[in-house]
Amino acid sequence: MAVNKPGKAEILAAFFDDGTYSPLFTDGAVSAAYGCANGQNAYVVFEDGSPVGVQDIEKNIRVLEMAAETGAPVVTFYDSTGAKLEGGLDLLNANARLTAEIARVSGVVPQVAVVTGTCAGTNAINAAAADVCVMAEDAELFLNAPFNAEDKVANAGSAAFAAKAGVAAVTAADAVAAAKQAASIVALLPANNLAGPALFDFAAPSKALDLVKCSAADAIAALADEGSAVELYAGFGLPVCGTTSYVGDGPTYCDGTSEKQVEDGSDGTAEQAMSEKISNTWLVISSW
Predict the structure, then answer these.
(1) What residues form DSSP beta bridges with 115?
(2) Strand ranges (E), the chain
(3) 15's torsion region: left (phi>0), alpha (psi -120 to 50) or beta?
(4) Chain-centre distance of CA 167, in angstroms?
(5) Which residues contact 252 (CB under 8 A, 6 or more apart)?
(6) pTM for this entry
(7) Beta strand extents in 177-244 (DSSP E only)
(8) What b/e sequence results for 135-165 when a residue is b if at least 16 CB atoms lie within 10 Å of its CB, and e otherwise?
(9) Is residue 40 within 8 Å of 73, Cβ to Cβ?
């Protein structure tokens, strides 16, 4: 974990347009805000790294309810050292209601998890349940503390491990970069299940499509507006990767596969050649 981590003000300034937003709940370990991220209205739930209590979880639930009512995405910044033990059964009940609300809102409005610090236990489950999980490289995500596990797994709980496991769709250098990445993703997603696609001022792709010699990456660069692609699950199931981007004036969701055939192995068998075939798959959210 980084010693000098960016604070709430710096992170939210990176997420919201012009750093401007309306605070909703300001007291306690969990706060909330509402504003625009790349032109998209969005709610934010922000954990400040302190243990959470029942009232903190209730605020999270209320934001999810408001998001479903107004049709706006929810972005949750996860960073908590755990729960206040004095909460007892009330705390367990509140956690259960939060998990149920996350499931209820799923498919109604987009949910994006941004892991900026410690995300453990139930928080890890909730972050993994989001539509997209963005994780800072100096953050931690685990269900059970890896330092207490009997079977020691290298890098368990790290962003690299979460990306390899397919939990973190995107990793970023730090919390500020993760916030900026989340803002880009939110803008590319539909605001809710009844909304049409977002519209953008289009830009030309960075290259032309060469149908004779074309990889998946080349196809994305030829289809998506220049600079709009956001790669998803780059570390999961290598060599599988994906991107989000836009082409023209609306978001697009694409996937494509390219294959690079390598030469036969030393024994010249077809089986050896098949085992060495490399496949690259891209998932793209873009505007056409």
Answers:
(1) 78, 135
(2) 21-25, 30-37, 40-47, 74-78, 111-115, 118-120, 132-136, 140-142, 170-172, 230-232, 242-244, 246-247, 250-251, 253-260, 278-285
(3) alpha
(4) 9
(5) 223, 224, 245, 246, 284, 285, 286, 287, 288
(6) 0.82
(7) 230-232, 242-244
(8) bbbbbbbbeeebeeeeeeeeebbbbebbbbe
(9) yes
Tokens of 250: 């609306």
The per-residue pLDDT for 210 is: 78
Q: Write down the residue that tokens 């349940």 correspond to.
A: 129
Residue whose tokens read 């596990």: 149
Which single residue is written with the structure tokens 């978001």? 251
Crossing angle of helices 88-105/54-70, nearest 10°?
20
Three-state SS for 96? helix
Which two tokens mark 24?
A: 């909703």
pLDDT value, residue 268? 41
What is the mean pLDDT of each successive set of 10 residues along the chain, which is 288 residues long? 78 97 94 96 97 96 97 97 90 96 96 97 95 96 82 87 94 97 93 85 78 78 82 73 56 50 39 35 51
Q: Does residue 107 come out as left (phi exceeding 0), alpha (psi in the -120 to 50 range) or beta?
A: left
